[in-house]
Q: What sequence folds into this?
């Protein structure tokens, strides 16, 4: 699933790995007011996410994401495994991964950072909080931060 | 040479020959006299043996120094007397002296050991050898007697005697006629006689019944057989002293081969002490039996070799034996392991010590009934001084029921723990998983409210508002439930922390509330304590937060203090000047989601005190409140100080 937001300048490619359509839609809504152009790609489970990243299956033409938003509790391959595989891959490990999950457990937080997550965010339970978080991601990761360019 | 001359010469020669013969005879006579003299002197020189000669009728014809010493007669008073006077009267009566001479004459030599009487009437055991003296023609010329006092023999007799004297018991050696031939000092002491008064006397004098009879052969058995049956077994009889007083004795018989036939050695033990003990025990038994029978537990009294000496009716019931089947039997029969062993002394401790270690402690063992079935018991030991030594009283309790109850309890506790864990897990999972769909409901109703407020009709706006409010409240409830379920499980390890720091942390979290309300929060110096600092901070935060939240019209004034109580507990107190609480609600306020005020008055779910209570339970503490409406409240909580300081 691909979608372009905005028209001018080179859009940022963002992969959202999220199984809840409600959350996907909320994220999409939040990115509507983004400062930069965002191409939001969605994988609804871990297996699909890895296929997207490796350009396998139906994802032969998938772009390399500039940022990955990864939920931990996913069907099939879970988020921790996906994180581990990304960070072990010489070609994928330079892509920043933001963990965006409902879990606030210390164990999950520690595990994620040990697997080299770039940051860990617990989804706020209220709408305003959630919108603020997505806005912050947009503001920080997609505007403030210099991301690596793929060297071909 | 003439005939006369020849005659003369012949006569002379004859005279000479005669003279020579005379001389020779004289010489021979002298030599004989000399040898006789030497022989007499030799015999006289023998002091250890009585040696004398008798004519064929037993009249004494010679007497040496040894005879004088041993038998007490001087030569001039005894020569010419009959040797029968050396025998005890009873032997004389039965013709024993004549018999001895007859046997000697018949065989030429006769040896025996026997009782003899000295001049002073005292008796002794003598070893005697009689020899028949005959002339070259074989005619009986008389007898010689060699004898010595066995009691002073330096040889085997002495050894035997030494052995006798060394024995701790009174010992008498008795011949088959029932006469005492030897005795030791202990026998003298026990029976109050002088040795001389007993040797040669009937043993019946000191043991009137039961001993002499045992020495007699009867038609059915030989002496050896009769004796053999008695050997080694202790026979309880009665001894009689010289003063005719009687006392209980136990005798042990053993045979002693001797020239005179089989002698019997009897070891005689005065068992009056033991008999007293037995009587005492019987008395005690009488006295304690009532007590014992009244006891609710099975009770046995056991001696140190592990034999049951006393028991009560509960023992019969519990173990299925009749009393007489247990008395005198090993306690191992009913308690196979762990009891008898405890009575035994070993190299490093005495029986008393071994026992002392066990006294008063309940020992769990297995009891075995007569039918072989086993059941759990608890025994309590206590020592019982008795003349027989220390006895042990064991109270035996059948703990089948208790064991069953214990097992039931263990099972129930395990069950309870499991269901508690399950509940905890349930609460966590429910609150966590409920959050997800609820977040959707809340987010989208909020999105709806944001995007469409005023664009639908007023009813829609109102309905959406209630939906948003409801989902928000439910989110708070679920979060509180999650916090509550974590309070009992998510704690940290206990370590020494400053409760001052915990309070500081709590107050930092409450900074906005404190500033907004203008509350004055003061505290005493608070102690170091071993506990979970994070949870303690949470407790302070909830209590101080409540103190400010439920304030009266006055400026909130909150004071925190801590005192050590008598035990190893710190009592923390959070005192406020707020609304106060009606005592009827004291219990209710600590229950999950129980509130005394409506949402419009004070917001909240009623989780704070429930969480405090749960955390304190985890930390081994407790919480309670003192309050009066409108007079403020003081919440106290106690925490144990693990160091005990």
A:
């Amino acid at each position: 699933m691909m979608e372009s937001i905005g028209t001018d300048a080179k859009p940022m490619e963002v992969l959202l790995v999220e199984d809840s359509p409600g959350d996907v839609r909320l994220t999409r809504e939040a990115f509507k007011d983004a400062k930069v152009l965002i191409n939001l790609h969605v994988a609804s489970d871990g297996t699909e996410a890895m296929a997207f990243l490796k350009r396998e299956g139906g994802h032969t033409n998938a772009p390399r994401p500039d940022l990955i938003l990864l939920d931990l509790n996913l069907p099939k391959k879970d988020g921790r495994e996906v994180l581990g595989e990304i960070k072990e891959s010489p070609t994928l490990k330079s892509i920043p991964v933001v963990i965006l999950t409902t879990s606030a457990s210390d164990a999950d937080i520690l595990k994620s950072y040990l697997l080299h997550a770039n940051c860990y965010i617990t989804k706020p339970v209220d709408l305003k909080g959630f919108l603020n978080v997505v806005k912050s991601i947009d503001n920080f990761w997609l505007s403030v931060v210099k991301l690596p360019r793929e060297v071909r | 040479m003439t005939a006369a001359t020849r005659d003369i010469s012949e006569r002379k020669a004859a005279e000479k020959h005669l003279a020579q013969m005379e001389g020779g005879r004289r010489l021979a006579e002298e030599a004989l006299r000399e040898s006789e003299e030497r022989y007499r002197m030799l015999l006289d020189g023998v002091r250890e043996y009585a040696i004398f000669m008798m004519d064929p009728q037993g009249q004494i014809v010679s007497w040496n120094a040894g005879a004088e010493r041993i038998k007490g007669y001087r030569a001039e008073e005894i020569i010419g007397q009959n040797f029968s006077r050396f025998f005890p009267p009873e032997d004389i009566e039965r013709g024993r002296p004549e018999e001895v001479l007859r046997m000697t004459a018949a065989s030429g030599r006769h040896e025996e050991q026997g009782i003899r009487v000295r001049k002073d009437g005292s008796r002794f055991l003598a070893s005697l050898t009689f020899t028949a003296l005959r002339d070259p023609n074989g005619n009986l010329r008389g007898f010689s007697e060699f004898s010595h006092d066995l009691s002073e023999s330096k040889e085997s007799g002495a050894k035997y005697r030494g052995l006798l004297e060394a024995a701790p018991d009174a010992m008498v050696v008795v011949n088959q006629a029932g006469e005492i031939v030897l005795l030791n000092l202990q026998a003298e002491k026990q029976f109050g006689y002088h040795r001389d008064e007993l040797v040669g006397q009937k043993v019946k004098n000191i043991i009137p019944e039961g001993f002499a009879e045992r020495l007699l052969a009867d038609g059915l058995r030989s002496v050896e057989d009769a004796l053999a049956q008695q050997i080694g077994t202790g026979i309880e009889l009665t001894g009689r002293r010289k003063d005719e007083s009687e006392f209980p004795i136990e005798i042990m018989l053993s045979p002693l081969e001797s020239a005179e036939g089989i002698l019997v050695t009897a070891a005689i033990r005065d068992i009056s002490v033991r008999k007293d003990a037995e009587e005492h025990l019987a008395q005690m038994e009488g006295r304690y039996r009532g007590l014992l029978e009244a006891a609710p537990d099975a009770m046995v009294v056991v001696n140190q070799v592990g034999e049951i000496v006393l028991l009560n009716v509960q023992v019969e019931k519990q173990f299925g034996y009749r009393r007489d089947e247990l008395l005198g039997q090993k306690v191992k029969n009913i308690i196979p392991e762990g009891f008898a062993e405890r009575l035994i002394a070993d190299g490093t401790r005495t029986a008393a010590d071994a026992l002392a270690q066990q006294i008063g402690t309940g020992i769990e063992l297995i009891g075995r009934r007569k039918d072989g079935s086993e059941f759990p018991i608890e025994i309590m030991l206590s020592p019982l001084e008795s003349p027989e030594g220390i006895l042990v009283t064991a109270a035996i309790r059948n703990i089948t029921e208790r064991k069953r109850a214990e097992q039931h309890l263990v099972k129930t506790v395990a069950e309870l723990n499991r269901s508690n864990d399950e509940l905890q897990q349930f609460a966590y999972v429910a609150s966590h998983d409920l959050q997800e769909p609820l977040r959707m409901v809340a987010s989208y109703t909020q999105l709806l409210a944001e995007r469409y407020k005023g664009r639908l009709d007023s009813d829609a706006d109102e309905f959406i508002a209630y939906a948003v409010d409801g989902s928000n409240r439910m989110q708070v409830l679920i979060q509180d439930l999650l916090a509550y379920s974590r309070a009992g499980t998510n704690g940290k390890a206990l370590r020494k922390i400053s409760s001052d720091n915990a309070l500081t942390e709590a107050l930092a979290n409450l900074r906005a509330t404190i500033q907004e309300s203008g509350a004055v929060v003061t505290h005493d110096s608070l102690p170091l304590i071993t506990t979970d600092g994070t949870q303690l901070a949470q407790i302070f935060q909830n209590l101080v937060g409540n103190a400010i939240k439920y304030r009266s019209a006055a400026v909130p004034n909150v004071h925190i203090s801590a005192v050590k109580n008598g035990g190893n507990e710190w009592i923390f107190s959070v005192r406020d000047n707020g609304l106060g609480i009606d005592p009827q609600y004291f219990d209710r306020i600590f229950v999950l989601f129980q509130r005394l005020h409506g949402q419009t008055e004070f917001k909240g779910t009623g989780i704070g005190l429930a969480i405090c209570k749960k955390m304190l339970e985890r930390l081994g503490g407790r919480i309670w409140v003192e309050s009066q409406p409108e007079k403020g409240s003081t919440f106290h909580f106690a925490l144990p100080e693990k160091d005990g300081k």
